[in-house]
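Appendix B, example 12.
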Amino acid sequence: MPRTRAGRRRLTQAVTAVCVLALLPTTWLYVAAGDRLRTAADAPRTEVAVVFGAGLWDGEPSPYLAHRLDAAARLYHDGRVKVLLVTGDNSRADYDEPDAMRAYLTRHGVPAARIVTDYAGFDTWDSCVRAKKIFGVDRAVLVSQGFHIRRAVALCEAAGIDSYGVGVEEAHNATWYYGGVREVLAAGKAALDAVLRPDPRFLGPKEPGVARALAEAEAGTGSGTGAGAG
């Protein structure tokens, strides 16, 4: 500690400034998400829900991911959305989040033709940009855990998607607290992504999966177990 009163005052001011700067991105997330958070019961009716990956356990959705998928299935069965876009990591052959998400949803009664898969959703920004640029999503309900949903809404809004978020509630266990701390750290990257708007790690050509699934939904076809990959 500085020995003089002036030195201690300058140290206090410096620490305060660092804390304020560190929390500015988190404050931005809360402001950007605003009043756009909903529950599965009162989410606005729209065409598409975007479900973000959250890890696999032995090839199956982790409990947190399963809870996201349960909420997405409820949105579909309640008629609040017509198509589910599942976005996650398939960067290697032995790890395939999107197909595991698809399989879980079909087991819970969502027709495969209403599920579109994005295999290059390596992080939240990539998923949002690809939903807009590759799959042509202009408006969506986003599904994630409560501690992540504000970042998802803020980034998808920055990517040009009119977004509402459904935050899945979880028990406040060690995983939940870890997720909350991680979000404080991730807020800085999110703010940079929103300002700099980098291209995703993999962009690729436009894919018609969402448009095709919506057209089939409007026509009342493709509600069986046929393929619906993007």
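The CA atoms of residues 113 and 226 lie 6 Å apart. The mean pLDDT is 86.
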